[in-house]
Each structure stands twice: as C-alpha cells, then as structure tokens.
Amino acid sequence: MTVLSARPVRVTAPAARPGAFLPVLLISTFMTAIDAFIVNVALPAMQRDLDAGPAALEWVVAGYVLAVAAGLITGGRLGDRYGRRRVFGLGVALFTAASVLCGLAPTAGVLIGARVLQGLAAALLMPQVLAIVRTSVAPAEQPKAIARYGLTMGLGAVFGQLIGGLLIRADLFGLDWRLCFLINLPIGVAALALLRRVPESRHPATRLDLAGVVLVSAALVALVLPLVEGREQGWPLWTWLSLAGAALLFALFAATQRRSKQPLVDLTLFRERAFSVGLVATQVFWMGQASFFLILALYLQVERGLSALESGVVFIAIGAGYLATSMYAHRIAARLGRQVVSVGALVMAVGLYGMWQAAGHGTGWLVPGLAVDGIGMGIALAPLTTTVLSRINPRHTGAAAGVLATVNQTGNAVGVALIGIVFYRAADLTGGFRAGLVALIVLELALAAIIQLLPRR
Predict the structure, then answer these.
(1) How far apart are the first and last CA of the chain?
(2) From what superkingdom does this record's organism come (predicted)?
(3) Residue 300 to residue 315: CA distance in whole angstroms
C-alpha cells in the first residue's frame, strides 16, 4: 500500500549509485550526531574558559536541542519543495559555519547563539538524508543504505563522549574544548566539495504552509523546553503550563493541517499503520538511548570516579556490540520481518539486566552487559527506521523524514526527563543507576510489545 497518490517526483540531476554519494550523507550525519553528545564532555572546560554560570551551560545544551526539534519538520518540507540536495547542502554549510563560530566564541552568550544556529542547520540537513536515500536509491538497496545510516547514528551517539575526551586531551594548538567544534570545519568542507555527487530530487508543486510552520515550531518548543529544563529547576509551575500549551498548540496545528490545501504534514500519512505505529515504537526506542548514556556517564564519572576520557573508553564495549550487528540487521530483518525489532529490544533488555547485576561491583563487570545491549541496539535501529518510511509516497518523503527525526529528538528529551527523575530520587548513585536500568528494561519490553501492532508484511 502506498500513502497518497501524487505526480512523480521530479529528479533534476542524474541518479548515482549509492556508493558514490552515500558517504557524503553519512559523514554529515555523523557530524551532527556527535555534536549532540560531545558538548557534555566539554562543559567543565567551557565554564572555566568563558566564566559561564550553570544557567549558561544549560542553554549551551538546551539551545541546540530546542532548535533541532523545532525545525526538523519544516526542514523536511523545505527539501520536498526546493530540492533535497540543495537544502542538505545549505544545512551543511550553515552547520559548518556555526561550528566555527562556536569554536571561536569569546563569551557564553555568543556560544549559546552559535549553538542555536547549529541546531537550525542540523534541522535542515538531517531530514534530507533519509529523503535522498528513499528517492534516489533502488528499493532493493535501501535496507542496506539505511543500515549504514543507522550505524552512523549509533556510532555518533556511542562514541561522542570518547571523541570529545580525546580531542580535549590532545589540546592541539592549545584549543582545548574549542577543538570539539572546530573539528567540524574540515568535515563540512569535504562534504560540500563532494556535494555534486548527491542526486537532486524535489516535488515543485509542494508549498510551505507558514501557519503550520509557526504552530508546529511553537508546539515543539513548548514541549521540549520543560523536558530539558524541568528537572534542574524542580518542575516549577511554568513547566506544566508549557506542557499544557504544547498540547493545545499541537491540536491547533492538526486542525489547520486538515483544512490546508498544502499542509506541512499531510495527516493522511498517519492512516498508514507502518508509519503511525512505527513512530510510537521509535519514540519508545529513543526514550531509552540518551537517558541510558546519561545515567551511565554519571555513574561512571561521579560514582566510580572515572574521567570523561576513561568513561568514554568504557563506551567502546557497547560500540563493539553495535558494530557487530548493525551492518547485518537488514539481512536479519529479511528473515524475521517486523520481529527483528522485538528481538533487538529483548536482547537490549538482557544486556540492561546484566548491567543491573553488575552495578556496585568493578567497572569491568559492566562490559558484558554493555556489549549485549549494543548488539540489541544494532539489530533494532535500522529496521525500525526502514519500517517507518517503507510505505510513504516519495512526494512526502521529506516531511515524513522530518516527523521521524522529530520523534527521535522528542523521544530523547522525554526519556532523559523521565529516567532522570527515577535516577535522582534514589538514595545514592548506584541505587539510581540500578533503578534507571529497571525503567529502561520496562521500555524495551514495551517496545517489543508495540512492534506486534505493525503490519505483518
């Protein structure tokens, strides 16, 4: 079944083999993925160098997250309208420039502004990656291409802290934390130099619903802001009012989309069960990712006394497990169908339970559980992404990819907020880590159950 009938997508540049352009997409994806995590390692050095207070440091993180979440759906639609390669290239150029501005920032205020610009640039380029894969790669080769995309996303998340620790330790030219941002300059320049290899596609009849842009952006900010800031501030009244306002804004957005002749997000997309149920499953999956990395890093660094670099080395275990399975997940999916995600979720639950048993003992006892968790993550991530986009008409690929990326971001924010509550309510960090792992196991079991609602084929 294909969602929505539409005229064919207009391709304005000859399509190329994935091997010719996929590396350009993936290196840019990796650049944006690590920037969501690498900054956590650099915060103490930023505080010393810029004389930044706790509130400023929070906004170095929150500004990026909010900008990404608010702009992804609009970014995806801009690619549909003006050309996915063109918008992707614009996003890479802006992200590279914003990274340089971050690396040269003389004050905390400039750094926060540059991080917001980074987030907006990431929102432009991120949806285009999956949209280009869906419109320019032969259907038979798409699962393998998306597996590589999933591998890149996972490696960026897993190794962001290690890479940041290595860059700060290297302290090349005395740049310290600034190198974490300036390293994006050669990466971005290389991606732009190879941009011509990426095929162009767009649907010129698509128009941008400006009312929809304003409403969905405001709704996402109202949703994500209290999730990012709420726990640190003790969940004051404004956080609950913001969440209520987000619900109202989303309702208004849905009403305008039903009436619009050119909606930002065509709500008939959600009639396709693979898309709607897949988004719920994706939300649950990502709720368990950033939150797990957060409580693991806190446990290792605060409770076990490891440095940022030493704790990053521990993350190699989960990265090794992820590498072992992620590139072959599409082959496993060919045999197991939708159940491949359930298998991955259950394997992750086993790994988390192993870490629960090991908590309180030596750090090395965590390694087997970390490796098993990585194996499950590698099995589940790419097939889940493929499922969500598998039945979307090419005309709406950019918008659908934007919705998917938005769900990834909101899932991370919701997970950090909820698991953070469980973690910090415990009497000590070991108890908090174990309580957080129990909550994460429940999430993985819920994910395995939700997958049963997907279409069988």
Answers:
(1) 11
(2) Bacteria
(3) 10
- Cβ atoms 180, 167 nearer than 8 A: yes
What is the DSSP annotation of 379-400? Answer: HHHHHHHHHHHTTB-GGGHHHH
| Structure-block tokens of residue 315 | 């993350």
Query: What is the distance between the alpha carbons of residues 377 and 289, in angstroms, rounded to a whole number?
Result: 9
Cα–Cα distances in angstroms (integers) from residue 265 to residues 74, 230, 257, 393, in the given order: 9, 29, 7, 13
Beta bridge partners of 10: 202
In this prediction the pTM is 0.84
Q: What is the pLDDT of residues 443-456, one digit of tens each?
A: 999 999 999 998 87
Q: Which two tokens stand for residue 155?
A: 């490696």
CATH of domain 16-208: 1.20.1250.20
- CA 448 to chain centroid: 20
Q: Are domains 16-208 and 265-456 of this chain identical in fold?
A: yes
Residues 6+ apart with CB under 8 A from 239: 226, 229, 230, 233
The whole-angstrom separation of Cα 370 and Cα 367 is: 5
**CATH code for the domain defined by 265-456:** 1.20.1250.20
Mean of per-residue pLDDT scores for the chain = 87
Domain ranges of the chain: 16-208, 211-263, 265-456
Using alpha carbons, select from 25, 392, 72 the residue that is nearest to residue 199.
25
Is pLDDT of 15 > 80?
Answer: no
Residue 49, Cβ neighbours under 10 Å: how many? 16
